[in-house]
Specification:
The complex is a heterodimer of chains A (566) and B (239). Chain A folds into three domains: 157 residues, Rossmann fold (3-Layer(aba) Sandwich), CATH 3.40.50; 118 residues, 3-Layer(aba) Sandwich (Rossmann fold); 258 residues, ABC transporter involved in vitamin B12 uptake, BtuC, CATH 1.10.3470.10. Chain A is built from 23 helices and eight strands. Chain A has a four-stranded parallel β-sheet, sandwiched between helices. Chain A has a four-stranded parallel β-sheet with strand order 6-5-7-8, with helices on both faces. Chain B has one domain: Rossmann fold (3-Layer(aba) Sandwich). Chain B contains seven helices and nine strands, in the order βββαββαααβαβββαα. Chain B is globular and about 50 Å long. At the A-B interface, helix 18, helix 19 and helix 22 of A face helix 2 of B.
């Protein structure tokens, strides 16, 4: 193994100059030069290779590469560093490219360009053998940058090689006594390379890369089809904590009866949890794997897998889309069509704030939604500006507030994509029950008060004169709209929530001539679209919520093209 | 007396100039009155005061013997006909649905579907719009919409009609139909109060009340229209 590494070291040294556009020999004046790297794991390995030569710092820290945004402060840091190193996988590659842009390519190194024989779509460094390859690549870069210190770097690399070799022996002895076959499943391809090395079997992974990933019903279903019946345990990555992917996996695993274990790590360290180095991380992962393997589980659901995975989500989708559409049917007549956008953007700010202070997400989003609703209503009356203008001002501001809060949060792992495209297959039974009861309440309220609501939205002046308490109706409708859209938002994500409020009522307006047929159409269109959308998302392997929105859109266009103007 | 207004002064929030100042005027049952005045004269404010929708700074309003601001039930006995443009014509309403809103508001609310249908049909017949009963309101012309709104008021069978500029941009045939229906209601002893800011067919009205924040003149149409202050204001409005 050592001979091979030496050969590859020589082989890649030849390529390194091609990768370095400008080799600035200037060394930082205060102590050692600073090398900035992406992840904490990479930082630990780089610090070991460059001990006594460079000072290494992770630019990501606890932030996920997917949520990384370049603030002026970070950009300065990236620009000032003596060198920047990144591996070049998934979203981490994007962070590296951002840094390369900031540094205009100067002394910026993508390590995967000089590593051979690894799969770039796997966390190859999660096994000591892969970690050594990464370390050797770091060594190459450092020797290129600081040739006068090559002896120190070579010694460091040799020490690390011994350390990794000891770790390799320890892993083999730890896993030797575990029951075989040792089957696991993961969310990301974090253990594939490790598994090949140590005789584990990764039966499934939900995403086959480390980039942005939209969960969808079909892939969730396939994942659980591959996991169930194999006795595999699902190992959750710490890096996915709080993500929609993690929710999808944990909600369905609990429902089907597949055991979850973890977390395992591949990118981040957790010094408070006793994981402050690469070696700690590997030892932690191995212990998690060994204890998970000790007691395999068999699925215990009575339902067919397709029903267990899709039914709760479908019920939740049906409930929120019908109730949101019915509230929307009154709201769009009042001219509040884009109000849903304001609410959902407000909710994002509420979610981020709740996330940062550790408050309940739903209540945070709801509070922010209500603040938006009342502010729009107040500003509209106070300024006399058109409603759409006030709404646009409000929701743009709220979205900016959300992004600013996220970029100030440091270790945030909350991903905006997860908020925009929540996945209904992540629904839990309790969640579905709550959503269904809530939606029935909304529908009952709307049916009971349909006459004053209809009068108010069609003819507010007449309604006021007729003795209808229009201010009460106004705020009741506004509040109901906010609560319903936010509930839909938390269940199916922002885009399906907003679309359910607008598109089915718009289609119903084209189809109906009476209030009765309008309300029936406003309930039937989302119900049928939910069923068609779930079926289509399984068929075409697409995100459920967004597919339902496309069904709404297709229905609207079809009706618009065949009906005359209302 | 159907409506009594005593020394009514109304300010809108923040405005130092009153919308109405010390207005005293009375309207009898069986009377058809044209409430005239230039834009911003306070015609709509007076209508809102009769409906109990504004808080007077001074004075009081009595409608059918009660204060409409305190006793909301009296509003069922008043039919308000808003300007046609205040209606959301995109709404999925047929003419029938619009008129039904009035019938269901009526103090003499129909107690079965047959009676409700008859009430709707009678009201539409009075304005000559029965053939449009199932038409969607979006498909009506301006004049037809004005007639449909009046039919809604007729179906309510109120004691007082308050019409806010009903002749705004409507055809001659519709104007005639509206006036005919209103005349017939006056003969049934109802008070009909119509606001208008431009010159119209005065011959149908028993009385004109000319308003410019205060009551400038009140009396028979020919008397009011020969009043110098009124003609000056009317001419100023037309220049």
């Amino acid at each position: 193994m050592r001979g091979l590494s030496a050969l590859s070291l020589i082989a890649v040294v030849a390529f390194v100059p091609l990768l370095v556009p400008v080799a600035d020999s200037d060394v930082g004046s205060k102590g050692l030069p600073t090398v900035l790297v992406t992840t904490e794991v990479l930082a630990d390995l780089a610090a070991k290779v460059g001990r006594g030569v460079v000072r290494v710092e992770s630019v990501l820290g606890r932030t996920s590469p997917e949520t990384f945004t370049l603030t002026p402060g970070t950009a300065m840091k990236v620009a000032d560093a003596d060198a920047f190193l990144y591996v070049g996988y998934g979203s981490e590659d994007k962070v590296g490219r951002l840094a390369a842009d900031v540094r205009r390519g100067v002394r910026t190194f993508r390590l995967l360009d000089v590593i051979e024989g690894v799969n770039p779509n796997e966390a190859f460094w999660a096994s000591p053998k892969g970690a050594l390859k990464l370390a050797e690549a770091i060594g190459l870069v450092l020797v290129q940058l600081y040739p006068e210190r090559s002896d120190v770097i070579a010694r460091n690399l040799e020490a690390l090689r011994r350390e990794l070799s000891g770790l390799d022996a320890w892993i083999r002895s730890e896993l030797e006594s575990t029951r075989r076959p040792l089957r696991v499943a993961t969310i990301r391809p974090s253990l594939n390379a490790f598994a090949r090395e140590y005789g584990l079997e990764v039966v499934a992974r939900l995403a086959d890369h480390f980039g942005t990933y939209e969960p969808n019903a079909a892939s969730t279903l396939h994942f659980f089809e591959r996991v169930s019946g194999t006795g595999a345990v699902i190992l959750m990555e710490a890096e996915e904590e709080g993500s929609t992917l993690a929710e999808v996996v944990s909600a369905n695993a609990r429902r089907i009866g597949i055991r979850l274990a973890g977390p395992i790590y591949y990118e981040r360290l957790d010094p408070e949890g006793g994981i402050s180095s690469y070696e700690d991380m590997v030892r932690w992962n191995v212990r998690v794997i060994a204890s998970a393997a000790a007691e395999p589980t068999e699925p215990r659901t009575g339902l067919p897998l397709i029903a267990a995975v899709l039914l709760p989500g479908f019920v939740a989708l049906l409930a929120v889309s019908v109730s949101t559409s019915l509230v929307g049917s009154f709201a769009v007549m009042r001219g509040w069509a884009i109000f849903g956008d304001a609410l959902s953007h407000g909710a994002i700010a509420g979610l981020v704030a709740a996330y940062l202070v550790g408050f309940d997400f739903y209540l945070g989003a709801l509070a922010a939604g209500l603040v938006v609703a009342l502010s729009v209503s107040y500003l509209e009356r106070r300024t006399g500006l058109r409603g759409d203008l006030v709404i646009a001002v409000t929701f743009t501001s709220m979205l900016a507030l959300a992004v600013v809060m996220l970029s100030k949060s440091g270790g945030a792992t909350l991903k905006l994509e997860d908020v925009l495209f929540a996945d209904v297959t992540a629904s839990t039974e309790e969640g579905v029950l709550g959503t269904a009861v809530f939606s029935l309440g909304v529908v009952a309220f709307l049916l009971a008060f349909r006459r004053p609501l209809l009068a108010y939205v069609t003819d507010p002046y007449w309604s006021e004169a007729a003795g209808i308490r229009t201010a009460l109706v106004h705020y009741a409708l506004l509040t109901l709209l906010s609560v319903t859209v936010i509930t839909a938002f938390m269940t199916v994500g922002a885009i399906p929530a907003v679309a359910s409020m607008i598109i089915p009522p718009a289609t119903a307006l084209l189809l109906s001539s009476s209030p009765r047929s309008y309300l029936i159409a406003s309930a039937l269109i989302p119900a049928l679209s939910a069923a068609a959308g779930v079926a289509a998302s399984v068929l075409f392997d697409t995100n459920v919520g967004s597919t339902v929105v496309l069904v709404y859109a297709v229905t609207f266009v079809a009706v618009a093209l065949t009906r005359r103007r209302p | 007396m159907a409506v009594k207004v005593f020394g009514l002064t109304v300010f809108y929030n923040g405005n130092s100039r009153p919308a109405l100042e010390d207005v005293t005027v009375e309207f009898r049952k069986g009377e058809m009155v044209l409430l005239m005045g230039p834009n911003g004269a306070g015609k709509s404010t007076l209508i809102r005061a009769i409906l109990g929708l504004v808080r007077p700074a001074a004075g009081r309003v009595e409608v059918l013997g009660t204060d409409p601001a305190r006793d909301r039930s009296v509003r069922r006995r008043i039919a308000y006909v808003p300007q046609a443009r205040s209606l959301n014509v995109q709404a999925p309403l047929r003419v029938r649905d619009l008129v039904e809103m009035g019938a269901l508001l009526s103090p003499k609310r129909p107690d079965h579907d047959g009676e409700l249908a008859r009430r709707i049909e009678t009201a539409l017949e009075s304005v000559g719009l029965l053939d449009k009963i199932n038409a969607r309101i979006a498909h009506l012309s301006g004049g037809q919409l004005a007639r449909a709104l009046l039919a809604r008021a007729l179906a309510q069978d109120p004691e007082i009609y308050l019409l806010d500029e009903p002749f705004e941009s409507i055809d001659a045939a519709s104007e005639a139909a509206v006036l005919r229906a209103l005349r017939s209601e006056r003969e049934r002893g109802k008070l009909v109060l119509v606001t208008e800011h431009h010159i119209t067919d005065f011959s149908e009205f028993d009385r004109i009340v000319f308003l410019n924040r205060r009551v400038i003149a009140s009396g028979r149409p020919d008397e009011v229209l020969s009043n110098r202050s009124v003609t000056d204001l009317l001419l100023a409005g037309h220049r």
